[in-house]
Amino acid sequence: MYELSIKILFSLLLGGSLGMERQYHDKPAGFATNCLICVGAMMFTIMSEYMGLAGGDPGRIAAQIVTGVGFIGAGAILRDGNKVSGITTAANVWLVAAIGMAVGYGEFILASSCTVAILLVQLGLRKTLRLVEMIKHYDTFFVTCDANWEIVDKIIKQVEKQNITVLKSEVTKQDNLFHVTLVGTFTGNDFQNITKDLLEMPEVHSLYR
Hints:
Blueprint: H1 2-24, H2 31-53, H3 59-74, E1 78-80, E2 83-85, H4 87-104, H5 108-135, E3 137-146, H6 149-160, E4 165-174, E5 177-186, H7 190-199, E6 204-208
Antiparallel strand pairs: 1-2, 3-5, 3-6, 4-5
Helix pairs in contact: 1-2, 1-4, 1-5, 2-3, 2-4, 3-4, 4-5
């Protein structure tokens, strides 16, 4: 009973640590979800050990944890146009289950080391990505303008004046207006400069990303 209590507390501590990072950054699958997954994976692992002692296959339950938790992670993945979000959260959920399994098998050092490593990656990666985005990143923005192809060409030329490479452009017509979708490479605060230039054009009605 004492060993089980230690494993439960350890699962809550490690799963909660990773969950707090997700909760702090306002991501799906936060503190409570990660605690439940970690404790659940730990309990299933213990049950698989008991199954082995009873003459059953100890790998059956443990193997299903790996695939079963994937369905929970998949629910955190969202697609919005050209952007996909939630993949890191889904991977985090999967890793939390692995940590819970390690605790279930009594591998406390392995579980703790993995938790620290994941936290370092999660927290350090954000700072690294910010530095990378200051150099160059891809983004999509949407412009609503008068239904005139010359205006579209003028918008693209105005964007390219900011040293932005337009990789893709798409135009649709609705309510007598053109809705222009542009994908380009940005550096630093280029979007603010584009916003200022384009919104000064009387033919442009809205601009957002």
